[in-house]
Amino acid sequence: MDKGIPRLIIIYGLCVLSIAGPCLAVALASSRISLRQQQDRAETIAADILRRALRVSAQTRASFAALRRSPDGIVCSESHIELMRQIVVKSYLLLDVGIARDDQLLCSSFGKKPVNIGSPSYLSATGNLIRNNVGHPMLLDGKMLIITEATSGVSVEIHEDTILDVSPVDSGLVIGLVGWSKRHIMMRRGDFDFNRIRGPDSEFDGFSYDGRSLIAWKRSTNADFAAVVVVGSSEILASWRQVAWMIAPLGILTCLSLLFVVRQFVRQQASLPTRIKRGLEREQFFLVYQPIVELATGRTVGAEALVRWRLDDGDLIGPDIFIPEAERHHLIEKITERVITLFERDAAGLLTRNPDIFIALNFSAEDLCSSDLCFRLRQCISRMGIQPGQLHVEATERVFINHERVNQNLKALNVEGIPTAIDDFGTGYSSLAYLTSLQVNCLKIDKAFIDTIGMESVTSHVVNHIIEMAKSLNLEMVAEGVEAEQQAIYLREHGVKFAQGWLFSKPLSIEQFTHRVGETGESK
Ligand code: C2E
Ligand code: CA
Ligand code: CA
């Protein structure tokens, strides 16, 4: 339980991250992509509007220059109006040109009939009077922009469509031409407060996004106006949704992949104890037997049973991984129970036919503290019909330390005639004092010390001390992990009688081990 709750939180956390991470990434990426798309779109349209406005501006300047002086010196004379007609025909962008005084257009290319055009909307930075949204007597629904040179009264009339009829433009956009220095509206489609445009006046191209609207503008370099395009929040949202749908499959795929990784992780890490329990139910555990030989003759005298775990998919998990985990989660007694059952099933025939052969089983601390260990082993021995000496008990020296219960079990096993061995001797707290107090029969010298034989290392002398200690206490010795002939010779010469290791044999199946015993036949 104590480990379960945080683990559960970690699993939920990983799942939430696996889902939320890709969702957030899709949301952020689609927001950036759609903003970029809308910015490009707005900039393209603004550039188009500015291009049109600059052409109109050029024709306006030319008209001002031509009409400032009437050919005959009389303002609005026939020849002056004739000149106006010629200019309108040549300048295809201007709808009309004329002379304005106060709120009237005194004459224009249409003739000498004064028309009321209202007062100017503002005076531009370049000295022109601007009237916007003006009606025309010939174009009732038309929206005109009238630009009047303040000094001469020469005026040009431009239809808004000439500048704003850009394509593609739909209802979602606000477009306009703005007097830049004071943000005066010259013409526009859609409603927008152009005072919201914030940007450095030194820049001729600009772009801003305030979380609601995206504004792009392009300014004329020599006149005081700018083309402005505003993309509203609903347009941005629609574009964001469209992009999000496009990249959503990628997000879903990432999400599923992450969840798969979490699932694998959970399966591998989180539930090893659960998997051990399931493995026991499904009988996935089995034993292999590593021969123990007499060094003097090479005769096989017994074997150590080593447990293996094969999953349904064929994967093999080593005891180094699952035994410590089983010990931590109090599952080791269940494994030991299965090991005893497997040992009984595997070895009964072999051991009854070969009374000189023994098999050693490994036990953990919890097993050796159990009050009925001795009783269970006695029953096992009697069911198999073997001698008590044919079953050996192995446990690491850490198991024996300071445990009254363990000592009682050792005594009881001794009484039963079941030999006991200290496993991995030398790696724990071995001291002569504690060795003398224990009722054990054998020391298994750990591979770490056997490996130092023939080497000039600090620990290479320890093996001699262990051998001497065992001899003085009259204990049998089995050298573990013997891999080289030179090690075997050294051990034999120093009085170690038995050994196991890859030099003699790797762990075998019970059939292979039975065959090995039968083949040599020395034990009979
Ligand atoms: P252990 O009891 O010290 O077992 C000896 C280990 O050394 C075995 O590894 C064996 O395969 C390996 N070995 C033997 N000879 C050589 C050699 O020449 N060279 C090398 N490199 N290795 C060699 P294994 O089978 O992986 O077992 C690891 C440990 O798992 C065992 O160490 C033992 O502590 C534990 N274990 C295995 N079976 C059981 C069991 O049934 N019950 C309990 N409680 N523990 C077990
Ligand atoms: Ca062992
Ligand atoms: Ca060992």
List strands and helices in order, with pairings.
Elements: H1 4-67, H2 78-90, E1 96-101, E2 104-108, E3 115-116, E4 122-123, E5 128-134, E6 144-149, E7 154-159, H3 160-164, E8 173-179, E9 184-189, E10 205-209, E11 214-219, E12 225-231, H4 233-270, H5 272-281, E13 285-294, E14 300-310, E15 316-317, H6 319-328, H7 332-353, E16 358-362, H8 365-369, H9 373-384, E17 391-396, H10 397-400, H11 404-416, E18 420-425, H12 432-437, E19 442-445, H13 447-450, H14 462-472, E20 476-479, H15 485-493, E21 498-499, H16 510-520
Parallel strand pairs: 14-16, 16-17, 17-18, 18-19, 19-20, 20-21
Antiparallel strand pairs: 1-2, 1-7, 2-3, 4-5, 5-6, 6-7, 8-9, 8-12, 10-11, 11-12, 13-14, 13-21, 14-15
Helix pairs in contact: 1-4, 7-9
The protein binds ligand C2E and calcium ion (CA) (2 copies).
Ligand C2E binds at residues 290, 306-307, 318-320, 323, 339, 362-364, 423-424, 481, 483, 500-502, 507.
What's this model, at a glance?
This protein is an alpha+beta fold. It has 16 helices and 21 strands. Residues 304, 362, 394, 423 line the site of one calcium ion.
Overview of the molecule:
With 524 residues, this protein is an alpha+beta fold. It has 2 domains: 231 residues, no CATH class; 249 residues, Alpha-Beta Barrel (TIM Barrel). It has 16 helices and 21 strands. Helix 1 runs antiparallel to helix 4 and helix 7 packs parallel to helix 9. The model has no long low-confidence stretch (mean pLDDT 89). The chain binds ligand C2E and calcium ion (2 copies). Ligand C2E binds next to strand 14, helix 6 and strand 18.
